Amino acid sequence: MLSVPNLQWLRSFEAASRNGSFTAAGEELGLTQAAISTHIRALEQQLGHQLLIRSTRNVDLTASGKAYLPSVRKALTDLAVSTTGLFGTTAPGSVTIRAPISEAVLIIAPALASFQNEYPEIEIRLLSAIWADTVLETGIDIEIRLGTGNWPGAHAEALGLEVMVPVCHPDLAVNLHSAADLSEYPLIHILGFENHWVRFFEAQGISMPEDRGITVDTSLAAVEWAAAKGGVALLLGRVARQLASSGRLAIPFETTIPALQTHYLLHREGSSMRKPSAQRVETWLRELFQ
C-alpha cells in the first residue's frame, strides 16, 4: 500500500504549482529553490509519476499533477482548519466562513470587497462545499446552510424567507411572458430540488410540459448553463436578482413560488464565547441574506 507522502513535499508541490516557479515557492515557504526542487523530485519518485514539467522560467502541471493538485490543496486546507480549531493558531481577527458553493460564489464573494474595505483588520477565509455535513467541523467560525434548520449539535438561525424565480439568457427572455411559454425551452433541474419545476407549474394551474431538460448538481452549474442559452432555471430570488442586475441573466416574468428551504446561520451548540470579529461577520451576513 502506498504510504502518505511527506507533508513538506506536498506543501512544496502545492506552492510551486500555484506560483508557477520553484523560486517563488521557495520564497513563500522560506526555502531555497533547490530544496523545493528536491522535495518535488522525491514526491514524484514516491508516487511513480511526473507531476511538473520544468522549463527555464517556470513549471507547468502534467496531467497527473492536475489530477492530484485539488486533493493536495483540500488536504492542506482541512489540516489548517482543524489545527486552527483545536489549537487556536489564527490571528484574533481571522474568521473562517463555510457556505454552499453557489452561495459562496454568487452571494458572499461579490460582497467581500466592500466588507474588507470597511473592516480591513478582519481576515476572511471563505470555504465552499457542495453538500453540507451533518455536523459542524472544528475550525469553522460561521457556516451558512440551505435547509430546514434541523442539524444535530448546531444552533440554526433562519436568515429570511426564500422564493424561487425563473431565469434565462436575456436573448431568450424576450419571448417569455408567462409560464405557458416555457414549453418551448428546456428546463434546468438541480439535484435535490427536482420538484421545484413541478410546484412552479402547479402554482400557475397548468400542466408541466414534456420534460426536455437537463440536470446539474449545483445552482452555480445551472447559472452557467442558463447563461449559455441552454434553457431556463429556477433560482433563489436573491441570486436571480443579483445576476439580472449584472446583465448575465434575465428574469423573464415576475412569477415566484416559495422555496421549501431557507438559509440558516449555524453555530455549534454551547459556543457562547464567540470572538468579536466573528460576531461582526455574522451581523454582516445577516444583512447580506435579508
From TrEMBL:
Organism of origin: Roseibium porphyridii
Gene3D superfamilies, alphabetized: Periplasmic binding protein-like II (3.40.190.10), Winged helix-like DNA-binding domain superfamily/Winged helix DNA-binding domain (1.10.10.10)
Family designation: Belongs to the LysR transcriptional regulatory family.
The organism's place on the tree of life at top rank: Bacteria
UniProt KW Lyase keyword: no
Domain HTH lysR-type: 5-62
InterPro entries given in the database record: LysR-type_TF_proteobact-type (IPR058163), LysR_HTH_N (IPR000847), LysR_subst-bd (IPR005119), WH-like_DNA-bd_sf (IPR036388), WH_DNA-bd_sf (IPR036390)
Tagged with keyword Transmembrane helix: no
Name of the protein this chain belongs to: LysR substrate-binding domain-containing protein
Keywords, ordered alphabetically: DNA-binding, Transcription, Transcription regulation
